Amino acid sequence: MDIVGIIDAVDGFVWGVPMIVLLLGSHLFLTARTGFIQRKLLLAIKLSITKDPDAEGDISQFGALTTALSATIGTGQHRRRGDSHPRREAPGPCSGCG
Known about the structure:
Order of helices and strands: HHHH
Structural class: mainly alpha
Distance between the termini: 55 Å
Largest sheet: none
Helix content: 55-70%
Number of helices: 4
Shape: elongated
Radius of gyration: 24 Å
Number of strands: 0
């Protein structure tokens, strides 16, 4: 049996019934362990997009959420952009190099 056949056999076993049982079992375990937190999902969405009139500050909950998400996601995008051409040399002297 060649290597492709071995990989196909392992792939067929792992991504078949055992993976479904593992995913479903872990989902049920974690749902019970966290106290069925999914039931509060709609309330969490509602609280994140509506403005609380009694809240302090000028930024709404949704504004704070989107700012935090953009800062988190944006940091990864800038880091990856710098790593995209690691061997490219700068065309000349630049500020902050060296």
